[in-house]
Design a protein that fits this description.
Helix content: over 70%
Shape: globular
Radius of gyration: 22 Å
Strand content: under 5%
Distance between the termini: 20 Å
Number of helices: 21
């Protein structure tokens, strides 16, 4: 069990480190592409990715999650799951290529026909690497997974920027998207050196299919709730509106996507291994949850305080219309940080049915929020979206923790410390903005404000709020020893 803890800490820190590089690369590439391309270019591709995102949820059919969650899984089961994934991937490839004319007609944009055709092959390539990725997760080889993510991202960025410089316009974004699954799957095959056998009947995959199917349905409902607004904006407000909204949404989600990917993947694997040990399950979850909040809450505050500086520095002056949208969406960073980690707990303990019920409740709430704001354009949608998500936080936490080893009081204690630290740290950069905001250029102001905030936040969080023990324990785990034995951390 100690070895599991050390693997989880090492894997988590490796993923966080790689995601830090991932964040820098994504922001850097966005800065370059935002200056080489126009909002309409992003909007055109965004119209298609709103649909491909839904289909993308079916590429896995939840089978990788099912394979990781199970305590024991055989080679015959993994091989059979591989071929099921390939069949699903091929079906999705044909589905997107076949529905291209309908998507083009829906948006009144004929160029989308060929964009759909070009992106359709991604499903097949993705499907061929799903079980290989699951094997690496089961083996807790997160350093390898982190390296693969980084290599595929570098290939994607090089392709996108190269095509943009060559004058391919929106096709550079298509190429950037299409290259990722090809490189990723090739690297996964090389890293695992596992060759699937022939599919078999009666190898005990029915329960895995049921588990994966429930997760897939859950993902479809959640994705529809969180992405339908882009479809509606594209349909009623056009490519430029969705281009501006989409870049603000992308920029606001880069930090949370990276953190959820890095910590969540490791946390789910570790929690699945200790699902029958209530004490360690609670301790592991609260540590991961506290880490996510400790890293995400300051990002939320900084995005709210420096929305103008971030947009104009990262995207450029022609994206000024995205500033208010970016600011209105910033509360969703904290919302997702507070509610998304409960998926680790529910999935790892087999409570996928409850997760699906929660998704079926949250979907109409969120959709209602941005439908109310739709007549007012991208700004109205952003306000409606954030408001609906904020209203859902407390009911979500209560529902998720009911009957589990984690209590609502545990969650409140985990939230209070970084919240107080963040609000305290916000005072100094806020004063800097009030007194020097007009005098300093945007980039120096952004650097100075962020530096001041981070310095105060760390001092207050680690020493004022007593979180030094938690983070020092993570560092000790990286060195192969534990500064604090596994225990139920009420203060986590």
């Amino acid at each position: 069990m100690k070895d599991l803890k050390e693997k989880a800490i090492r894997g988590g820190l490796a993923k966080i480190g790689s995601q830090g590089a991932n964040l820098a690369l994504r922001v850097g590439s966005l800065m370059i592409l935002a200056r080489l391309l126009d909002p309409k270019d992003f909007g055109l591709v965004g119209m298609v990715t709103a649909f491909t995102g839904i289909l993308n949820l079916f590429r896995d059919f939840g089978l990788s999650t099912a394979a990781v969650q199970r305590q024991n899984v055989t080679d015959k089961q993994i091989s059979t799951l591989f071929w099921i994934n390939v069949v699903v991937g091929l079906s999705l490839t044909l589905a997107l290529a076949g529905t291209g004319p309908l998507i083009a007609r829906f948006y009144h944009e004929p160029r989308l026909l060929w964009v759909c055709a070009a992106l359709s092959s991604s499903f097949l390539f993705n499907a061929a690497g799903i079980q290989h990725s699951a094997l690496l997760q089961r083996q807790m080889r997160f350093t390898v997974l982190a390296a693969i993510d980084l290599v595929s991202l570098l290939a994607s960025i090089a392709t996108g920027i190269g095509m943009a410089l060559a004058g391919f316009g929106y096709w550079s974004l298509v190429g950037m998207t299409a290259i990722v699954p090809i490189v990723t799957t090739l690297c996964l095959w090389g890293a695992t050196r596992w060759i699937p056998g022939a599919p078999r009947r009666n190898v005990g995959i029915r329960s895995l299919m049921r588990f994966g199917g429930t997760i897939t349905l859950n993902g479809v409902v959640v994705y529809a709730a969180y992405n339908l607004e882009k479809v509606l904006l594209g349909r009623f407000w056009g490519a430029e509106a969705i281009g501006i909204y989409g870049r603000a949404y992308q920029l606001i989600n880069i930090p949370t996507d990276n953190l959820n990917s890095s910590v969540g993947e490791v946390a789910f694997s570790a929690l699945s291994r200790v699902q029958d040990d209530a004490m360690r399950l609670r301790a592991y979850f609260l540590k991961g949850y506290s880490l996510i909040l400790g890293l995400t809450l300051p990002i939320t505050i900084l995005c709210t305080l420096f929305a103008r500086e971030m947009i104009l520095v990262v995207l450029g002056a022609k994206w000024a219309a995205a500033v208010p949208i970016f600011r209105y969406l910033s509360p969703t960073i904290l919302t997702f940080a507070m509610i998304n980690p409960f998926a680790w707990l529910l999935f790892a303990t087999g409570r996928v049915g409850r997760s699906l019920k929660i998704a079926l409740v949250i979907a109409p709430l969120v959709i209602a929020g941005y439908v109310i704001g739709l007549p007012y354009g991208p700004k109205g949608v952003a306000i409606g979206y954030s408001t609906a998500m904020a209203l859902w936080i407390v009911p979500h936490i209560i529902w998720c923790t009911h009957g589990t080893v984690v209590s609502f009081q545990d969650v409140v204690r985990a939230v209070v410390r970084p919240l107080i630290s963040g609000l305290t740290a916000a005072v100094l950069p806020l004063l800097m903005q009030l007194y020097y905001g007009e005098a300093l250029p945007m980039l120096p102001m952004l650097i100075a404000g962020v530096t001041a905030f981070v310095a105060v936040y760390l001092v207050v969080l680690l020493y004022g709020m007593g979180q030094k023990r938690l983070y020092f324990d993570l560092i000790a785990g990286l060195r192969g020893r534990s500064a604090v034995e596994d225990q139920v951390l009420v203060s986590a």
